[in-house]
């Protein structure tokens, strides 16, 4: 084995942390490979509450540093991905007996001021008897606080980081499992990682080499340490399940609701994909493995009960169109309740196995870019030729426009392609930004885009997702690259599967 065949960095895990590190490292002229055993974002990173937020409730646990970093990062991310993220106002109805109004006001004052907020509007107090947000709530709610946070399409965030990493030279291998990794000496006596890979579809095997290994396997991090690396971890993670329900639209305005429960837990009710409302999350310790996580009936009941404490029209099981759940791999700080466990991350560099190993414990989607920078900062001695941090002002693919120009971008797309309906154009802009033009190409009518799989999903879009975003199956496309699984029927999804199998 010749050292020229060796990657600088090999990353295990295609979630937001792994893909964020791959993108950052590739942009600093490191040679990078990433392996994900399933699809990109198929674990925790597609099962979030879809928010870039500071974490208002973390102030109660004195996580001021984490909240400050996340709040500062909100606006950085918003400017770098205006197609897949946008500002959102959150309405927090005041409930006597849970948290006193002065405490909520103090928390929101801190939230407004510790993060250097520039783009987002400040908190204000609402009279729910006069405001549209009060029309769907029970009449005893008189007052609310309205504050700012940001929405993000989480799985798309991961795919776009992977796309950008690949454009910068990274090798992104999906459905490719790391079966073993051992430290060996190369031909010139350097310690390197020998990594054994297996293709999940063909079961073919290959061996690659890397100077440094990054374990960003999320909920599977300890499994990788124990089984693939055959060693012990110096830290533990706490698996906490977060479940969500998606129901038919409960209100017409664009604001979200922040609901408090009497047990101090919270949940959001958020406008979702034009026709729905997303309700979540739960915080349940998850003692099982992170495979095949589902939203339990007890969690459904809990979310419905909490929602029905606030909305005057009852929300029932019959309103639910979809449920999903994910396991957060939180750094185990010994907190007594799952909801109190820290959302901060620990980047751990180990040298005792020979070649450097970095283990990523914890983290939250809002701070993924900072986590990537922290990971590479740990490797400066290993890679002195590495470039400086660069991602703070670098838009993700399709995000090279100003948020304020988003409506104009949609208008221009419809002028260029008159066959697009308003909803179709909006979906393309919210999904691909300026790359929508590259997908539509020279099309002068919808027939020019090839097969129509239903609900504006065209063959041209599917081919783009195959070629640029590593999509391989119908599930990848309808649940992770888009959310068209909410509207496509089984016959349409089967048709897409058959087409993908043939191509």
Describe it.
With 503 residues, the protein is an alpha+beta fold. It is built from 13 helices and 18 strands. The strands form two sheets. Strands 3, 4, 5, 6, 11, 12, 13, 14, 15 and 16 form a ten-stranded mixed sheet that branches. Strands 1, 2, 7, 8, 9, 10, 17 and 18 form an eight-stranded mixed sheet that branches. A hairpin with a 5-residue loop joins strand 12 (256-260) and strand 13 (266-272). Helix 8 crosses helix 9. The protein is globular. The model has no long low-confidence stretch (mean pLDDT 92).
What general outline do the C-alpha atoms trace? Answer: globular
**How widely separated are the two ends?**
35 Å
User: Unreliable segments (pLDDT under 50, ≥5 consecutive)?
Assistant: none
Helix content: 25-40%
Structure class: alpha+beta
> Count the helices. How many?
13
Mean of pLDDT: 92
What is the C-alpha radius of gyration, as a whole number of Å? 23 Å
Give the beta-strand count.
18
Largest sheet: 10 strands, mixed
β-strand percent reads 25-35%
Structure summary:
The chain is of the alpha+beta class and 503 residues long. The chain is built from 13 helices and 18 strands.
Note the main attributes of this structure:
503 residues, alpha+beta, ten-stranded mixed sheet, eight-stranded mixed sheet, 13 helices
How are the elements arranged and paired?
Elements: E1 6-12, H1 16-26, E2 32-36, E3 51-52, H2 64-80, E4 85-93, H3 101-113, E5 124-127, E6 143-152, H4 154-167, E7 171-174, E8 176-185, E9 191-199, E10 205-215, H5 221-228, E11 237-248, E12 256-260, E13 266-272, E14 276-280, E15 284-285, H6 297-308, E16 320-331, E17 345-350, E18 357-362, H7 368-377, H8 406-416, H9 422-432, H10 436-440, H11 459-468, H12 474-481, H13 490-502
Helix pairs in contact: 1-4, 1-7, 8-9
